[in-house]
Amino acid sequence: MAGENVKFQTLVVNTGPGQWEKGSYYWVAEVYTTENEETKFLAQTEPITPVESVPSGGANGVQLVFTVPDTFSGRRLLYKVILIKDGRRLMETDFKGFQVIEKKFTQPPPQDFKAGGDISVTYKNSSTGGWRKHKVITSANIVGKVKRASFLFNTYLVHTYSRPVTPSIILFNLYAPWGTLSAGDISPTLTPLSLDGQGMMGVSYERVKNRWAFIGLAGRIVAPQEPTASFSGRFARYTGGGKVTYNVLPSLKLSLDASLSKDDAFSITIDTAANTLKPQQSSVSGVALEWKFLRAFTFNGEYQASAFTADLNGEEPSVSGTGYRQELKYKSGLVGLKAGLSRVNAKFMSLSCPSAIPDRLTYDAEAGVYPADWLSFSAAYNRYRDNLDNDPAKTATTQNQTNLSNTLRLFGSSMLTTSILSNTALGKPAGVQDNKTDTRSVSLMQPIGVHTLNISAQTSDFKDNTRLSHDLASSLLSLNGSFRISSKMSLSSGMVNSITKDKIDGSSNKNNSFTGNVTCAMPRRAIALQLWATLSSNKSETPVTPSDTSLLSMNLETLWLKSQSSKFTFGVGTNIKTDNRDSANNTRELTFLTRMNYSF
Predict the structure, then answer these.
(1) Which candidate, 195, 389, 433, 518, has a CA 20 to 30 Å from the CA of 541?
(2) What residue segments make up the domains of the chain, in order of their start?
(3) Which stretch of 517-526, 564-573, 583-592 has the lowest confidence by average pLDDT?
């Protein structure tokens, strides 16, 4: 629901031989939009640093909260959850999507200068703390045109008593004949090895003229965070870079790129010698090409060189490294193929490119077959190995991942999707790491007139042949549907059940979630009512930290359409948390919100 919080829940098992010390790892989620079949960065949640250490074989999970901007109603968003340890990405999930309820937007009549959009102001409060948690949210989504240039402006600001203005999203794009200027929360890309997949608060400029293309950027990629007793803190990190591309031929492009990332050593206060946090710097430069030939083939390649300084305050010289990537693609009407090779040596480092992992040789291949508009097959294979220098002090790891999937449309409307995923990780020596994960899933989307039903199931098995971690078996079942009762009433409901069982000690973790939503419109009175409820429960029978909790959330909103350009929303709700093991943890709160929307 636009304007409300979405919780991204994740759970991971430490399958490594060592313990994750508290303060050495944290969770964060990134949210993306999809435009013209391209995924673009939108926002990042507040990082969560758990206060407990995770031993080998132990599990850790958190809930990351993202507030959906009111101005993104009607759009589909993607998200992924990332686990970062010791400053590097240890794990990240695949993209998962969710739909925001659509809002109608009417463009104003054309004119020399025109601007239109939606502005909303929301006030929220809750009984927790004696109704003192005042929060105001201002959001805007404005598009317009000035002569030959057009612009897009999005913002989402949070106002509280302690922090009058907290920008969650600020983005301004200007599309002009002389180039494209972007400022705010941007996610530019130079190349997959130099700068890619890194959101930042900054500015970028792109220009294409004749055979030349240029992009330049600068911004902050990591916000500063002061150290605490259990956390070393984070320096503010800034990045700048650029790329120049020249079309040698209509089918051949050559590019030169460079980027610099640097920590600001004065962005936080370190007042103890026990803190080992050091400011770092990396610079990357290289060359890339794109060659299209034989109409259906495309070859992409790049070579990058880096210089990395682990401590800007120290006297050690910078370390140089290199990396290269090659990719060949074939695409026709019925078949799509892709093969790639990437090698990044152990001394290569790009602080602005989290996907470029040092000391790794990667092979990947993908194939898609589309024999009919109602049938498709796809297969993907990925293999990597590290410790390329055969350092006897390091464990060499080889990981293989295979994914097979099939999509079938039955009877013109039913959509059946099946997939199988196998992942193996083998260390050298094998006694250090030897595990396998098999995942199977199936989903069915079934329209029934104006109604829609969805069902999906997934099972997963994890086996550790070294016995350093416990073998696990998990299952997930999801049911949901949307129903249009009449022209004035609709409802939706859903259920998610997940179970994870430990095959060694017999413990289990069970999660259940039930949701329901009813919307009733009264057009003659320009009023709509919406009621939704969520009941979630968690029961963990682990020997270390058993738990049995449930959370019931209910909300009722009344929407008054005052005019074609303005509407008001009034809502009340309650959240009831129950701890079946310790009633002292039980909580109950009431919530209130009011929102004003103005469209122009």
Answers:
(1) 433
(2) 1-104
(3) 517-526
Distances (CA, A) of 398 to 227, 388, 428: 36, 11, 8
The pLDDT tens digits of the residues spanning 484-494 come to 999 899 999 99
Phi, psi of 544 (to 5 degrees): -90, -50
The answer to whether residue 36 scores a pLDDT higher than 70 is: no
CA distances from 391 to 17, 138, 228, 395, 579 (A): 18, 54, 36, 8, 50
User: Are 67 and 102 in contact, with CB atoms under 8 Å apart?
Assistant: no
Residue 512 CA: distances (Å) to CA of 306, 462, 538, 552: 48, 22, 7, 12
DSSP letters spanning 462-496: EEETTSSS--EEEEEEEEEEEEE-SSSEEEEEEEE
What's the pTM value of the predicted model, to 2 decimals? 0.75
Q: How far apart are CA 101 and CA 519, in angstroms?
A: 12
Distance CA 307, CA 314 (A): 15
**Which DSSP string do the residues of 60-120 spell out, in sequence order?**
EEEEEEEEPPGGGTT-EEEEEEEEEETTEEEEEPPPEEEEPPP----PPPP-SEEEEEEEE
User: Which residues does 266 contact at the CB level (< 8 Å), separation at least 6?
Assistant: none
Read off the pLDDT of residues 262-314 as tens digits, 9 standing for 90 and up: 999 999 988 777 778 899 999 999 999 999 999 999 999 999 999 999 999 88
Are the C-beta atoms of residues 233 and 281 closer than 8 Å to each other? no
Q: 524 — phi, psi (to 5°)?
A: -65, -30
User: What's the mean pLDDT in 246-272?
Assistant: 94
Mean pLDDT of the chain: 90
Of 102, 33, 48, nearest to 70 by C-alpha is 102
Q: Which backbone phi and psi does 431 adopt, to 5 degrees?
A: -70, -15
Name the amino acid, one letter, at 196: D
Measured CA to CA, the distance from residue 193 to residue 348 in angstroms comes to: 10
* Phi, psi dihedrals of residue 226, rounded to the nearest 5°: -70, 145
How far is residue 101's CA from residue 74's CA, in Å, rounded to a whole number?
5
Query: 278, 250 in Cβ contact below 8 A?
Result: no
Give 401-444 as a 3 state SS string: EEEEEEEEEECCCEEEEEEEEEEEEEEECCCCCEEEEEEEEEEE
Residue 58 has pLDDT above 80, yes or no: no
E strand residue ranges, 312-413? 319-331, 335-344, 360-372, 375-386, 396-410
Q: Is 406 exposed, middle or buried (0-12, 13-18, 19+ CB in 10 A)?
A: middle
Highest CATH level, class, for 1-104: mainly beta
Residue 389 has pLDDT above 60, yes or no: yes
Phi/psi zone of residue 585: left (φ > 0), alpha (ψ -120 to 50 degrees), beta? Answer: alpha
Is residue 588 within 8 Å of residue 570, measured between CB atoms? no
Range scoring the smallest mean pLDDT among 32-46, 101-115, 175-189, 474-488:
101-115
Q: What is the token pair recorded at 308?
A: 């990395």
Q: Report the length, in residues, of the chain.
A: 600
